[in-house]
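User:
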Amino acid sequence: MKYAAIADWAPDKQYSVTFMCDQLGVVRQGYYRWLANGPCQHERTDAELTETIREIHTELHGHPGVRRVFAELVVRGVRVAAKRVWRLMRAAGLRGRHPRAWKKTTIAGQRPIDAPDLIGRHFSAEAPNTRWCGDITYVRTVDGWSTPRP
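Assistant: Predicted structure:
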């Protein structure tokens, strides 16, 4: 990672390679050896695996998370740890879709009682404001969701 940072800054010639190696605590010969050899085997396999993960992520339209991508890799015969899949997905900016948590809105009191049916299921009224009925289980207010108190 340090060598890659040096390689990004070296073409600008704003700082010398020797100065950057000294500041990052690496030897200059190691940087030039890294530059000649290219990325190591681990970095190459990470790049290949990242491409495979991107393919899986686009194929599964539900925006799969680490567990589903890991399971698909196992099905494809790729032997890899789940933590490595997590690390590569995070580095690639791939995220799974998290469904919303279910919220319980109706909460019974300690001693719930049935309300009497005063209308008797006759919902037509002879005049306005003579029969009112409703069933409110929760109301959204400025302070949040409130439930009726018995």
